[in-house]
Every structure is written in C-alpha cells, then in structure tokens.
Amino acid sequence: MKRVTEIAPGLHYVGANDRTKHRFEGLWPLPNGVSYNAYLIEDDKIALVDTIDAAFTERLLGSIREVIGDRSVDYLIINHMEPDHSASIDAVRRQWPGITIVGNSKTLQMVEGFYGIGAGTLAVGDGDTLSLGAREISFHLIPMVHWPETMVTYCAQEGLLFSGDAFGTFGALDGGVTDVQLDTARDTSPFWDEMVRYYSNIVAKYGGPVQRAIEKLAPLLPLRMVCPTHGPVWTAHSFPRVLDLYDRMSRYEALEKGVVIAYGSMYGNTEQTAERLARELAARGVRRIAMHNLTSSHASFVLRDIFKYNALVIGSPTYNMGLFPEVRSLIDDLELRCIPSRVFACFGGFTWAGAAVKRLSEFAGSHGWELVAPPVEVKQGYSPDKTASCASMAEAIVAAMGQPL
Ligand code: FEO
C-alpha cells in the first residue's frame, strides 16, 4: 500500500508535518505544529508544486520516489520562495537534474540569490500557461501575499488552485490532509483560531495586496480544491468559509464582538485596573473578554485576538519614562499592521511621573483611533476609588461596541 496520499486522481500530497519546531520564522510559537505542503501532479509530465522545509527534504524526496518510481520530475513550480518552502529546491534538482524550475522573474532572481541556481529555469508571467499533458496549468501573480514574488498556480480542468501561503494556517495535519478528513467542521476546531493567528502574525501587514489577490482570483471561483502551503487542503466544503475569513481579516474587519485587555504590570497595580475593568465589562454583558498579561502571553496570541475582536484596551505602567517594554513591543506590532479601527481605551500607572497613559493616548491619536473614554491612571498603589472610572470606561466601551454584544 502506498504511504503517500492521493488527494485527487493524479494529485499527491508530498508535504510533511513539523511537530518539533519551537518558533515559526524564529518568532511564532507552534503549539499544534505546522505542515509544509507540497504537491505532485502526475500527468504526461510530472510537476512538483513547491518544496518543503530543509528539515524534511529526505521525506519529500522519498514521497516523490514512492509515487513516480524511476520516472523523473519534469517541472518544479515555485509559488513562494520563503525557505520553509524553497529550502529543498537544490536537493530536488540534484535528484532529478533534468528538471525545469518554473517561476516568475522575481522568483528566479531569488532562486539564484538563495541557492545559486541560474540555469534550467523557465520564467513565466501573469496568465501564462504550461501543458502537462491532459492538464494545463496557469500562473497568476499575487505580489506581497506576503512576499513580492508570490503567485498561485491554477488548473482549470480540475478546479484546483495551488495558493502558496494564501489560505494557509498553522497546525499539523493529524491523519487527514483535506478539510473533510480533518477536524475542521466544528466552529471550535483549533484550525480556525490558528488561521486567524497565522494571518495576523504572518500576512496582516499586507491587507491591500490580499484584497487585490481575492479580487483577482474571483473569476476562478468556484474552486473544487484549494491547496495551500500550510494547513488543510480546502475542498468546496470549507473553502467559502476560509475565503470569507481572509476577506474580512484583510479588510481589518473584526470577526466578532469582544474585548481584548492587553497590559503589562510590574507589581500588580496596573493588573488590578485590568481586572476591575474586565469585571465591569462582564457586569454589562460582555462575554468574550481576552485578558493578556503581556509578560506571559506571547504576542502572536494577542495579535490573533486583536484581529478577532472589535474592542481593545491597553494598559501599561510607566517604565523609564515610557511604556513597559512588552507594551511598547505590542504597539510596534500594531503600527506595522496598520489596523484602521478598533474601539479603543487605555489605562496606566506611575510612581512619580506619569508617561504611559500619555504614550498610549499618542499612539491612539497617531493611528486615528478615538479614545472612547478618558484613560484610567493610577498613581502608585491601586485603590478601589478607581472603580467608578473603570465602570465609566466599561460603559463607554459597551456603547461603542454596539448591540447585540
Ligand atoms: Fe510559509 Fe511565507 O512561507
């Protein structure tokens, strides 16, 4: 029995799961692992679509050999050059020296820059086609989703789209490969939250290019199968939901009503303000409240929740006449991602000279976010006389969030 999964006639999944890497891109934790997806199309010609991370090169080569035996791979189609997908290019070429590497001009420049390969390539442009025999595939550039060379590969006869990182998600593929073979049917399936975290961490700076890509791909709909480089292969069963999520996130539209309270705290005084505010919000009917002490919550989960929920409150002690370092880092992350609007409020503390609330208010102003309530500021120890101002802030947040909550 073959070990490699044939996900459609002549289309094989030759990717691999990574359950040991601690940080994706050296940055983002992977509690559920990640998959590096590559696909092999078997026709008169054999085409490999993308490769996988260097740690799994031998597994990729073994999977391909299992499918094609003594035949050779004719084409390596490269949709994206980030090394989690491109690192096995040279090994694939050494295994099948007659292979032609297919990519757009930006891709081929990177193939040379990363791997020193300048020959045996075929440059393709937007809309160009390539015949594999019974199948014809076409190439469509979607620059800055999320690198400049990113493109997708489409097979019209079969309604297949190889989408690169677009429509990807964190999470290893436990057993199945397609959405219907995996735990994706439940709204609480970890894949959905991990998709938001993947998007908000990796792609979110490029909302405009993602919108342009979605518009460009619209004439290709409906698709029978979408094959991204990470996460499940999406069939018509789930792809509309995936497309809707990517569309809304790339318009920076919050996915649900809810409040993120993200704060730093050195000795618990700022944290007590956060707790009081959360209680006041809950007392007014808010049920989705994501509390993130930034010393212990990794930024990737905070960003995920900021993309999910429509209200954000940031709190910080004054530290070295500025923001607590973890709060400053979150502000940097938000500035990079250019989220145009959220219901926003802030709070902070100081011992002898206040700066945190001033800095947070300046951030809101420079970002075009309106403060829905005056900041709550605590001098030295937290005291219960802040309850009334936390209650007013909660009232204003709930009013700005709109009903129903
Ligand atoms: Fe999965 Fe942008 O690489």
> Radius of gyration, Cα only, in angstroms?
24 Å
Number of strands: 23
Average pLDDT: 97
Q: State the end-to-end CA separation.
A: 53 Å
Which strand order spans the largest sheet, edge to edge or round the barrel? 1-2-7-8-9-10-11
Major sheet details? 7 strands, mixed
Mass-distribution shape? elongated
Number of helices: 12
Q: Stretches where pLDDT falls below 50 for ≥5 residues?
A: none
Strand content: 15-25%
Bound molecules: MU-OXO-diiron
Q: Portion of residues in helices?
A: 25-40%
Task: Provide the structure class.
Answer: alpha/beta
Overview of this structure, please?
The protein is α/β, with parallel strands linked by helices and 405 residues long. The chain has twelve helices and 23 strands. The mean pLDDT is 97. The site of MU-OXO-diiron has 8 residues, from helix 2.
Task: Kindly list the characteristics that best describe this protein.
405 residues, single chain, elongated, alpha/beta
